[in-house]
Design a protein that fits this description.
This protein is mainly β. The chain is built from 6 helices and 25 strands. The chain has 3 domains: 243 residues, Thrombin, subunit H (Beta Barrel), CATH 2.40.10.10; 72 residues, GMP Synthetase, Chain A, domain 3 (2-Layer Sandwich), CATH 3.30.300; 65 residues, 2-Layer Sandwich (GMP Synthetase, Chain A, domain 3). Strands 10-9-13-14-15-12-11-25 form an 8-stranded antiparallel beta sheet, with no helix packed on it. Helix 4 packs antiparallel against helix 5. Keywords: Signal.
């Protein structure tokens, strides 16, 4: 049985992750993009397609689309269509999708749909991204300085970060990729680490993992083993070094590590168990709130992504999703250099930090407030695994649906 799907911020690291409501059946969207809302119920007032259905369409026809993203400045959902004979068919396929049904992923009833013509398809960009780490001629020159790479959907190219941008690297990129790659200087990823908690333990709390050395990190969410009902805490795998490590909070045991993965091209996740854990996370230094669900679909450009590592104190919900399926080189002082892929990257839209030392393993979440009032819900999105160098305003995180081992889920009660 496949245990893990394919896809660090401890203080000592060198690499400085709904309550469903009843809805009417969605109506198809108009072929002509329009921001005007229709009268009637909320289902019919959306002018854009359901983002999950749109993503599925793009994935199934990767040679016809470049991708999609949300432009918050204009409140527009942008769909990139490849220039060519199939462009008209691609637009018609989008027009035939069901409408969005709720204000999810940053969409609102006033969000407009816009098509944008591009020269490179998703399939082509994905191939180029894969070659960044496998092309022998390019890697022979740039491999030692590679720090991050991902498909830059917005600019229809592949973004490649290097720790040092030399003439040799520029020439190698031009030879291997032409104009399809955008080089920029980017530091290697670094790992990071609420203060005094007690059982039943709460997500977002300060933890210390006792291995060959003691490393401070954060807990993410409470998880539950579906077959047995056993509960545990979720954190980053790089926070410890082995199954059996003891996890503490201010010297009090929170359990021992029972599952751990931290490997090149793998995941950075661990589960510890052996104590009592509740389905709540810290929303500030002293206040907590319940986790009510998960959200596995995030839209590039989405705003209001919250980070809650212990060192941050109060939650910071100013995160904007800036990269999907990103790869980053993690240079840790006690482990070999690892490339971790399948990461999401967010950047603060304001001056605040998203990830500081000790925030590794901490929760990434979304706060949903119903239209017209009512109780807000907190949806688990992922767990923090690192940040780009000393850029505390950006962070990498694992999406929650890719790192939970088979048979485990986020506790929501």
């Amino acid at each position: 049985m496949r245990k893990w799907p394919q896809s660090g911020l401890g203080r000592s690291f060198a690499v400085v992750a709904l309550a469903a409501s009843t809805m009417l059946a969605p109506a198809p969207i108009s072929a002509a993009p329009s921001g005007a809302a229709q009268a009637g119920d909320s289902t019919r007032s959306f002018a854009v397609p359901d983002p999950a259905a749109l993503q599925q369409l793009i994935t199934s026809r990767p040679t016809e689309f470049g991708g999609m993203f949300l432009d918050p400045a204009t409140n527009t959902l942008v769909v990139q269509v490849v220039d060519g004979p199939s462009a008209g068919s691609a637009r018609q396929a989008v027009a035939g999708l069901p409408r969005a049904r709720a204000e999810l992923s940053g969409l609102t009833t006033s969000t407009a749909l816009r098509f944008h013509s591009v020269g490179r398809s998703k399939a082509e960009l994905d191939r180029i991204k894969d070659r960044v780490s496998t092309d022998p001629a390019w890697s022979g020159i740039a491999g030692p300085v590679l720090s991050e790479w991902y498909v830059d959907v917005i600019h229809n190219r592949v973004a490649v970060g290097v720790t040092e941008l030399t003439d040799a690297v520029r020439q190698a990129a031009a030879t291997a990729f032409g104009s399809a790659v955008d080089l920029r200087v980017a530091p290697p990823a670094v790992a990071t680490s609420k203060q005094v908690d007690s059982a039943p333990w709460t997500g977002g709390a300060r933890i210390a993992v006792q291995g060959a050395a003691t490393r401070e990190c954060s807990s993410a969410f409470t998880v539950v083993e579906t077959a047995t009902g056993r509960r545990g805490g979720l954190t980053a795998g790089h926070c410890g070094d082995a199954v059996g490590n003891t996890v503490t909070n201010n010297g009090v045991s929170m359990g021992t590590v029972i599952i751990r993965e931290y490997a090149a091209q793998g995941h950075d996740v661990a589960i510890y168990a052996g104590s009592d854990y509740q389905n709540r996370i810290y929303r500030s230094i002293t206040t907590t709130g319940p986790v009510t669900g998960t959200n596995s679909f995030l839209l590039l450009g989405q705003l209001d992504i919250c980070f809650g590592g212990w060192h941050m104190g109060d939650q910071n919900c100013d995160g904007k999703l800036t990269a999907l399926d990103s790869c980053a080189s993690f240079w840790l002082d006690y482990n070999p250099r690892y490339v971790i892929c399948g990461l999401l990257k967010a950047t603060s839209t304001k001056a605040g930090y998203l990830a500081y030392d000790g925030d590794s393993g901490g929760p990434v979440f979304q706060v949903r407030r119903p239209i017209g009032g009512g109780a807000e819900s907190v949806l688990a999105l992922g767990l923090i695994v690192g940040r780009p160098g000393q850029d505390h305003t950006s962070a990498y995180f694992h999406p929650i649906n890719t790192v939970l081992p088979a048979g485990w889920q986020i506790a929501t009660s």
